[in-house]
Design brief:
This protein is of the alpha/beta class and 438 residues long. Strands 1, 2, 3, 4, 5, 6, 7, 8, 9, 10, 11 and 12 form a 12-stranded mixed beta sheet that branches. A 5-stranded parallel beta sheet has the order 14-15-18-13-19. Strands 16-17 form a two-stranded antiparallel ribbon. Strand 1 and strand 2 form a beta hairpin. The two termini are 19 Å apart.
Length: 438
């Protein structure tokens, strides 16, 4: 179902800004300069603004005293701009009126409002504070923070699942910093970057002369992380022949260096692994051991993608712009720019957002402001006509990353839709290979 909007010229347009109808309770998740909170919305009209006299106070100097009004209307929430100074935006378009269902995101000033449909029990569950060092205070990420603080007390393995660019290593570091091992080493290993023939040596070390080029004894990652945390990024790419040795280490057996003839030693290490690919599918494809999968997934932390927490995008964007000051100078994102950013689906998540902001900052040399049209230009860039070496498995993973949207996945791959669909269907033996929706 669409959302009817009236733009600043008075014309009416229709945009898809929500999901499915909902008959339960309605909330607005507001993220401003002081954090995120959820406020209930009923059929009674409430005024949102920066004035203390507003029904819902937004702490943002770019928001007008009485900025907009909201109320439940039918199976969604209706919004009305109250002649605000900086306007109300959806998808980069300034609108006077809007109606949206669950997931609809609106920007006012430099703050975000997201429509949320919940059951009565969920509405009363308020998560704790966000994790230090991670921008964004959405309810979704504060729930992740609660889970991290709870799991930080344990020594058992944790698997962090999420799309590429969602900040899985930041979550791993938080698990370390929030727990009793915080004073001990945090060692991060990107499994994908390890040469296949050196995986065992990198993890467990080697003795002098164990193989050609082993001129000195070397400690492995397990020994370097003694007493602390070992983070294995993209563990799904661990070669199948090295997986039994990792399983043995996780089961509390001895760690033995390559080339060692003596007895090994037990490692006191908390292993945290991360993956962007569903390990269950790797198991079904015979690429990942089932016993190792079950050992790693003792606890699972799911990091939501940016499109599932659009309210965090302004805060993350401002933090990224702050990090870029040394390279490009200070920049301010206008309300229209924030609206454009919040409307994008970000298949590359924070990594893609950073790239867009870098290009936008470069395009505004000599100006301190980044406006919506500059963001639009930074999002549009030349793509190759095809992606060399994209496999059927990779195409299917890309399709899953875009929620089954064939057109969006094809655009991301830089391929024609028909060619991408043929690639997806070219290996029917792969897990989940079925005809995608046309």
């Amino acid at each position: 179902m669409g959302s009817v909007l009236e733009d600043k010229c008075g014309s009416t347009i229709t945009l898809e800004i929500g999901s499915v109808p909902h008959a339960g309770r309605w909330l607005i998740e507001i993220q401003d300069d002081v954090g995120t909170r959820r406020v209930p919305v009923t059929h009674e009209r409430i005024v949102v603004g920066s004035s203390e006299t507003a029904d819902v106070v937004v702490h943002d100097p770019t928001v007008s005293a009485r900025h907009c009004a909201a109320c439940v209307l039918g199976m969604g929430v209706a919004f009305e701009d109250l002649s605000s100074r900086n306007g109300m935006f959806i998808g980069g378009a300034r609108v006077r009126e809007a109606w949206g269902q669950s997931g609809a995101a609106l920007s006012i000033g430099r703050s975000m409002m997201v429509v949320v449909a919940v059951g009565s029990s969920e509405a009363n569950e308020e998560p704790g504070p966000p994790l230090a060092g991670i921008a964004g205070t959405s309810v979704a990420m504060r729930r992740v923070a609660d889970q991290v603080r709870r799991l930080a007390k344990h020594a058992l393995p944790v698997l962090i699942a999420g799309e590429s660019g969602t900040g899985k290593e930041l979550i791993a570091r938080a698990l370390h910093d929030e727990g009793p091992r915080r004073s001990r080493p945090f060692i991060a290993i990107n499994v994908t970057a390890l040469p296949r023939e050196l995986v065992e040596s990198e993890l467990f070390g080697h003795e002098r002369g164990a193989f050609t080029g082993a001129h000195v004894r070397r400690l492995g990652a397990f020994e370097e992380a003694e007493g602390g945390t070992l983070f294995l990024d993209e563990v799904g790419d661990l070669p199948i022949d090295a997986q039994p040795k990792l399983l043995r280490a996780l089961d509390g057996y001895e760690i033995r260096r390559v080339g060692s003839s003596g007895s090994g030693r037990r490692a006191d290490v908390r292993v945290v692994a991360a993956t962007h690919a569903p390990l269950e599918e790797r198991v079904m494809a015979g690429c990942f051991r089932r016993d190792l999968f079950h050992r790693l997934e003792c606890f699972v932390v799911n990091v939501p993608p940016l499109r599932a927490r659009r309210g965090d995008i302004p805060a993350i964007a401002r933090e990224l712009m702050f990090q870029l000051v040394a390279q490009v100078g200070p920049r301010t994102l206008t309300s229209a720019a924030i609206a454009r950013l919040a409307a994008h689906d970000w298949p590359g998540n924070v990594r893609e957002l950073r790239n867009v902001l870098c290009r936008a900052a470069d395009a505004t040399m000599g100006s301190a402001r980044i406006d919506g049209d500059v963001v639009d230009g930074a999002m549009r860039r030349e793509r190759p006509p095809h992606v060399v070496g994209l496999s059927a498995h990779g195409a299917q993973a890309l399709l899953r990353q875009h929620g089954g949207n064939l057109s969006a996945a094809a655009r991301s791959a830089g391929m024609p839709r028909t060619s991408f669909r043929k690639l997806v269907m070219s290996s029917p033996g792969l897990p989940g290979s079925r005809a995608p929706d046309s």
